[in-house]
Amino acid sequence: MEYTSTHDGLTVHVEKVGGGTLGRTYTGSWGYVVTDSASTELGRGQDFTTGTPKTHAETALLIAEHFRDAAA
Predict the structure, then answer these.
(1) What is the pLDDT of residues 60-70, one digit of tens each?
(2) In terms of pTM, does the model score above 0.90?
(3) Which of 33, 46, 56, 63 could in theory staple to 13 by disulfide, Cβ–Cβ 3.0 to 4.6 A?
(4) Domain range holding 52?
């Protein structure tokens, strides 16, 4: 994975499907792996899509929010 960050106890690994450069913004599909604080995998895929340009960091935060909200 190209980028890893932690948000509210979730670790999110993201990559731009088709390739991307950290710090640049992209639309389209993103790959991800999300784990909790016990390293249990909560989700994995290449189906997270952004319609407006996002950086890897912004996309990781959106994915973390999605998984946090789904668990609530």
Answers:
(1) 999 999 999 88
(2) yes
(3) 33
(4) 3-71
